[in-house]
Here is the input.
Amino acid sequence: MINVLVVDDDAMVAELNRAYISQIPGFTCCGSASTLAQAQEYISDPEQKIDLILLDVYMQQDNGLDLLPILRKSNHTIDVIIISSASDFATIQNSLHYGVVDYLIKPFQFARFEDALTHWRDKRALIGNQKSYQQADVDRLLHGSYPAAPDPSRLPKGLTPQTLRTICQWIDSHQYDEFSTDELATSVNISRVSCRKYLIWLDKIDILFTRIQYGVTGRPVYRYRLQHEHAGLLKQFCL
Here is the structure.
């Protein structure tokens, strides 16, 4: 799970953020701080293992931006998303200068909140899963340039949008699981042959990663998992 710390002195906003976090698979709120002193206690606690901070700017006792240089000077590899009513150029520029990964202006919709967290997660997965990069990988990291999603109405012959939606919804609910064709077919009640066609196509458009598992005897088993940097493309087929 990805551990998220909420830093906001408004109890209602903090609770809303906690509720939003709980709705996104793979994320959990590990704590909430209403002051920068409390936030630093969480950060310095080795048992917390914080991955991401949702940080407000305007707090009664503190300016949230003061936490950014502290993080930068430390050895912590914690990313920050600003969630604030501050919309002035100086605040946004200062935030970007210190490397915040996203900036949400209050009030915001859940869809924008979810996009911020999942996009950060996908970039993090891309960084963590590769030892070297192609230019296309760097473009995804710096510019968010991901492959365009194929039009579901123009699927290869033999594939239907309805079945694709069923399969993609199952994969979306098992984002961190590796699975075989048989496991998918049993779960969605679709024939193994049909599932295999969709999995081959999803692999072809880079939504899935395929691994061949060799046993002592018998045929090798193809196992699949979601490429998290392309999770956004998968979700388009779930609608």
